[in-house]
Amino acid sequence: MTAVPLPRQPSQRPDAGTVSPSAANAPGAEIRDRLSARTPSSATSGAAPEITPVFALKELVARLNREQHKIQDLLSSLGFALRSFNNLNQFLELIPLMASRVTDSDGGALLLFKPNGQVRLERLHCQDSRWCQDIRKALETATRQVTASLSPTPAGESIALTPSAIATLDHQVSHYLGADVQLFGTAILVKNTERGRLYVFSRDPQYGWTETRQKLVRLVADQTAVAIENDELTVELRKKERLDRELEIGAEIQLRLLPRQCPKIQGIELAARCQSANRVGGDFYDFIPASYDQIRSKKDGGSEWGRWSLAIGDVMGKGVPAGLIMTMTRGMLRAEVLNGHSPARILQHLNRVMYADLENSNRFVTLFYSEYDPKTRILSYSNAAHNPPLLWQAATNTIRRLDTLGMLIGLDADTHYQDAQIQLQAGDTLIYYTDGFTDAANQSGERFDEENLTQAFQQACQQCDHPQTILEALFSQVQKFTGTAHRNADDMTLIVMQVQATEL
């Protein structure tokens, strides 16, 4: 008679299968049979002495102890394999063998459910190798029947077998193995989801699926689930480690693309810092010699009296995509600067070149571009919707915003930008910044807006005598506002440019 198992539901742990009438061969019944057994009386000439109830009981207890030790040794070996094997396939090979050994059955089979809904015979063990071929054919036929009944799914999508499909699988397995096979099956549960079935079977008509044997099969199934989950966690960990390494490489490349140090420009002092919220950010700044002659004349950045371009930008978004666009923008801008056009024309050309790529990525770039001439102290600039730099004029102790009309880079291919100029004086200080400063929020959700930045900048200019100390003061003010335990959600980039009192 076949014991057809009920599906083991993920939400609870019910009995994993029904038991055939032969399960009545429990230890209690066996003890009663042994105690009631009698041999011919010892009075009969040449006969063995009578087996007493005490002797029969001792013999039975000794046999049960041997069986218990054997089961403990097998389960201990399975636990050791779970801890030792790094290869899941090696561990799965042991499962049908262990399940049949601990239950004294004829064989076992492990069936796993694939993400696409396919049911596959993973491992099979039979005591009789000649019978094993018939068992394999029966199980493969049953799995094909169940897989064929499932609705097809698009490639790449995962599907979980429903309880009715699992019940059908149990029925098909029992049907194809035949009524003379004593069968028991239980679920392989991983994170409360059934990922397979473990079947154990016997051809012995007197074989019974006692409660103890069912528990042992469930125990082996649980060990299998742990092994599968550990393997999946290991795979995820390795993916994460590879991703972390790729991010580290990306962050390292991005860091190398930023200026290693501020250039020496006649009559001004510079300080700059880019603080990314993630490993790879979308902010960038750059100092670019305005002509080929400057690049050739000095390896460290050109002539002190030559014109220099100062640019700061921000890619909408964060992480690796923003970092890639930032790298592309930097390269194109550097190439465009050497053409010698005005700031507005440079932004216009950059926008037209980058428009197609940015439109496809649904990302945009804000960019403030300026050129400084040390001989005249004139700063020429144009803005592509970036945060306007703030100019502190030392003579009047006032703050002025440097801005022009212009759309985001990548928003409209036909956008026109405007040129503007300003005459700087000795002592004037200018800051270029990204919205990471003004959007920085404290625990109450309040933003460190442009007004707070303007006040902090004005105080820093009055109290500090060097661009680096001004930079440190502004970063400190934002950190104080947001709180030391509150991590900024956006990249923060700042350039401080101060005009010195050098005679021309």
UniProtKB/TrEMBL annotation:
Residues 265-499 form the PPM-type phosphatase domain. InterPro entries: Bact_Sigma-Reg (IPR052016), GAF (IPR003018), GAF-like_dom_sf (IPR029016), PPM-type-like_dom_sf (IPR036457), PPM-type_phosphatase-like_dom (IPR001932). It comes from the Bacteria. Residues 87-238 form the GAF domain. It holds the Pfam family SpoIIE. SUPFAM superfamilies: GAF domain-like, PP2C-like. Keywords: Hydrolase. Residues 1-47 are annotated as: Disordered. This is Guanylate cyclase. It comes from Stenomitos frigidus ULC18.
